[in-house]
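Q: Sequence in, structure out?
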Amino acid sequence: FYNEQYEGGVCDKNTFNTGVVPSQQLAALVPYALEKYGKRVYVIAADYNYGRISAQWVEKYAKEGGGTVVKSEFIPLESNDFGSVINNLQAARPDVVLSLLVGGNHIAFYRQYASTGLNATLPLVSATFGLGNEQVVLSPEESKKIVIATPYIQSLDNPENKRFVALWQKEYGADYPYITDSAVTAWNGWHLWAAAANKAKSVERDAVIKVLEDGLSIDAPSGKVTMDGKSHHVTQNISIGETDDKKGFTVLDTKADIPPSFEQEVCDLVANPDTNKQFTP
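A: Exactly. Output:
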């Protein structure tokens, strides 16, 4: 089980993915940004597999929405100086910035972005902000009005999430700062496996895979999660959220049962179980 957001496209008989993929997340976030802020998008991405491939997805969804990516800039993971990036942004004058930055060093971007006053004039959306609790590390002013798209936001109002948050706070303390989407995708992976093993009455690999490929569902903190048997990815809810003044996020909208559409298109492990590759856009 690979329980993390990633760039999508992995097709392998022995791999099951519970994290959100671009054909769910960026398919929601990019059209939202184009409609709300404008058609000219500037992409800032981490310079590795996730950032490079996800930037291709942004190009695709921007074009489909009648927009354009004015520039994609790729930042080394060890970099924490964004002076030149800020200058490039100011020169390009996009309508919106889309961040695919990751890791501790890249938190510096948001701090420098705010220090120039750009966060008051140039909207920022992100597919990765919050995964590392960036909104907890930064002050509310430094992370003001950043928009995300993700399956899980801690303030989601459903019975399973209330139960999950209560269990988490009992284990880690009521003052735990914020529960991330990554925590919930790991929870979902364990519970999908356990549900499959219980139904199969076995922990043997092939028996568990057979049940998972039949389209197993669980009620998760993020909402209903269903394993797509052919692609080994999950159909799940996607929420649009915005940073609040309490170092968390406010849910703006939730779309239910969003399939991993690209993975379903390119990957059928029931018909072709020997496939072992990563498809890209």
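The two ends are 23 Å apart (CA to CA).
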